Amino acid sequence: MNRATEHLRTALWLAGIGLPVLPLREGKLPFGNCPACSGSLCGDRPHMKAAGPCQCPAPCHAWGAATTDPNVLTSSAWAGAWRQAQAVAYHPGGAGLTVVDLDNADAVEWARQELPTTKVVATTRGQHWIYRGAMQSANGVRPGVDIKSTMTYARWRGPGTGGMAALPAVVRALAMKEPIVIRPAPVSVSVPALTGGGECPHRSPAYLERGIAMAEQRITEADSVIHTTVYRTFLAVLSAHGRCGCLTDKHIGRLFTAAHGKGESLRHCEAAWDNARAKLGM
Questions:
Q1: Which helix (H) or strand (E) covers residue 118, if one does?
Q2: Helix (H) or strand (E) holding 162
Q3: Nearest in space to 176 (alpha carbons), one of 153, 147, 143
Q4: Cβ distance 81 to 58 under 8 Å?
Q5: Has this prediction a pTM greater than 0.70?
């Protein structure tokens, strides 16, 4: 049996037991959007709020492509993807499940001490603990711990061992929004002298507040490509306010908190902020 046939057979079996599945390409990544859907040109936002199937004929929209329809999985449009597939993934939230991804031995030990026993699947570096019940996904909730449920995917690594427990409150609490402390170094903004010697024109409280509120809304309403949305929003804010001294740690904290609410870790927020500043030569 060749690899493509093996992956497709696994996908069909998983779909048969109710797990929405999708192929992963080289690097264990989902297939990228087709040209017609790049940058949400297809107007994909409404159907991205739920598990697939994606409206495209071929795998597209990452986790949104996950499906339990065997006719889609075996269609000619998906054949090329299966030939390139390196692994099979599933959308946990689409099946009413949550995966606590424990990335190292310390994280596994923490789970053994703090979390209820449930189904365990071994991974390359740690374990997946799987619970019944869906929730908001979140990265970096603890060192080495990610939560994978809605609007994300998890690689299929086998059926695992043990019985599956109901999603406990302690796991839900890990993804609750918490105030984000902004370290000075990554978010410091150089403020050049104003050429006219007058007051910055952006210092109108209403103007700045509207800009920050619109940036928060753009992040919180994003249905896909969260990393890209966060970066582009940070870039837009810095383009408008990054050189004139308007931004304070409080404003930046609001943006980071909005991104954190969509599952971005503080590390990812800082990286996006630094990349936006570098793009603008700041």
A1: none
A2: none
A3: 147
A4: yes
A5: no
